[in-house]
Amino acid sequence: MKLQWSKGAGDLWTCVVEPFSLRVAPKGDGRWNWQIFKGATNPTASGVASSLGAAKTVTEQFVKRSGLV
Question: Which of 17, 21, 35, 50 makes the best surface tag, with the fewest CB within 10 Å?
Answer without folding.
Answer: 50
